[in-house]
Specification:
The chain is 41% helix and 15% strand. It has 388 residues and is an alpha/beta fold. The protein folds into two domains: 187 residues, NAD(P)-binding Rossmann-like Domain (Rossmann fold, 3-Layer(aba) Sandwich); 184 residues, 3-Layer(aba) Sandwich (Rossmann fold), CATH 3.40.50.720. Strands 3-2-1-4-7-8 form a six-stranded parallel sheet, with helices on both faces. A six-stranded mixed sheet has the order 13-14-12-11-15-16, with helices on one face. A two-stranded antiparallel sheet has the order 5-6. The chain is globular and about 65 Å long. The two termini are 37 Å apart.
Length: 388
């Protein structure tokens, strides 16, 4: 099949690579450098499997800046453009999706549009009416940054927001590109699929917040966090996963998805306490971390990495930024981040030389690495398992 992908972030590019194993895929982006890199089979994002596929697989994939070239003969157009949460309107900014839909209707009105960007609950049915275009359905993604193609090759499940032949065809395209042999496929309506996405991520955020609050209690009482977490997680109903304390949840998905779900409750006056508490807990955790650092009365604080997790090059919405902003009025700060191209972020010096952190009184590390061993006496971290 001929498939167009709008957007080549980690969702769009992993989809493009997955589907181009068996189909003709055209990936559209507005950044010339990204298009050039993809056509040279160089991944513009940090993703081990995408890099390996680019080097070793014969993919029927072309990137373009031309929307006409991308859309004109596509049977499916997959939208994977960013939808940042807008705190002013309490809603996702979905303009990029609507721009793609408008272009597709003008260029190829027979195409089926598949939305994979994260959207509010009720959005797909609303937009179908606004554009008077029925050929749209939602397919949520459940991908980790830095592991997006891996999670596409070995998906936990495939959720499709329509019960139709074309929905089954698209689900089979995803399944046929995957390496995992048995993949649960669930067909729902669009609004239920949207709810699955937001509630799933909010549950994960709740789990992060829970173990962070446990760690706050343990550290405040001088208790061994690791022993407590391991004892709790030996219960198979809880499990020894997604339980490593941090400076707070961040990244592409969890902050905006939890706030969007909360907005869906408040806009319609639906009773809730837990969803709001998850969002507030994440703020309190970062305030607690900042206070712990200031209590040490440092003159200079080093930040070890802005990225949220190992194997990623993304630090958008990283939890450490909020901690930095809380510390900034009181101490000198320097950031060590080797993947950052900037020499300065928000007026704070950025270095790719780890030795610069030796001059600091305290070094904040959301996640520790072996290279910090010689500086361990200065390191403040809540990473107790040495993993994400």
């Amino acid at each position: 099949m001929k498939i167009a992908i709008a957007g080549t972030g980690y969702v769009g590019l992993s989809n493009a690579v997955l589907l181009s194993q068996n189909n003709e895929v055209m990936a559209l982006d507005i950044v010339p450098e990204k298009v050039k890199l993809i056509n040279q089979r160089i991944s513009p994002i940090e993703d081990k499997e995408i890099t390996e596929f680019f080097q070793n697989k014969d993919l029927n994939l072309k990137a373009t800046l031309d929307k006409n070239e991308a859309y004109e003969s596509a049977e499916y157009v997959v939208i994977a453009t960013p939808t940042d949460y807008d705190p002013i309107t309490n809603y996702f900014n979905t303009k990029s999706i609507e721009n793609v839909i408008k272009d597709v209707i003008e260029i190829n009105p027979k195409a089926t549009i598949v939305i994979r960007s994260t959207i509010p609950i009720g959005y797909t049915e609303k937009i179908k009416k606004e554009f008077n275009y029925k050929n749209i359905f939602f397919v949520p993604e459940f991908l980790r940054e830095g592991k997006a193609l891996y999670d596409s090759l070995y998906p936990s499940r495939i959720i499709v927001g329509e019960k139709s032949t074309r929905a089954e065809i698209f689900a089979n395209l995803l399944r046929d590109g995957a390496f995992k042999e048995t993949i649960p496929i669930l067909y729902t309506n669009n609004t239920e699929a949207e709810a699955i996405k937001l509630f799933a991520n909010t549950y994960l955020a709740m789990r992060v917040a829970f173990f962070n609050e446990l760690d706050t209690f343990a550290e405040s009482k001088n208790l061994n966090t690791k022993d407590i977490v391991e004892g709790i997680c030996l219960d198979p109903r809880i499990g020894m996963h997604y339980n490593n304390p941090s400076f707070g949840y961040g990244g592409y998905c969890l902050p905006k998805d939890t706030k969007q779900l909360l907005a869906n409750y408040t806009i319609d006056n639906i009773p809730q306490k837990l969803i709001e508490a998850i969002v507030e807990s994440n703020v309190l955790r970062k305030e607690y971390i900042a206070k712990r650092i200031l209590d040490k009365k440092p003159k200079k604080v080093g930040i070890y990495r802005l990225i949220m997790k190992a194997g990623s090059d993304n630090f958008r919405s990283s939890a450490i930024f909020d901690v930095i902003n809380m510390l900034k009025p009181f101490v000198e700060i320097i950031i060590y981040e080797p993947v950052a191209k900037e020499k300065e972020i928000d007026g704070i010096a950025v270095t790719n030389d780890l030795k610069e952190l030796e001059k600091c009184d305290v070094i904040l590390a959301n996640r520790i690495e072996d290279e910090l061993e010689k500086l361990k006496d200065k390191v403040y971290t809540r990473d107790i398992f040495g993993r994400d």
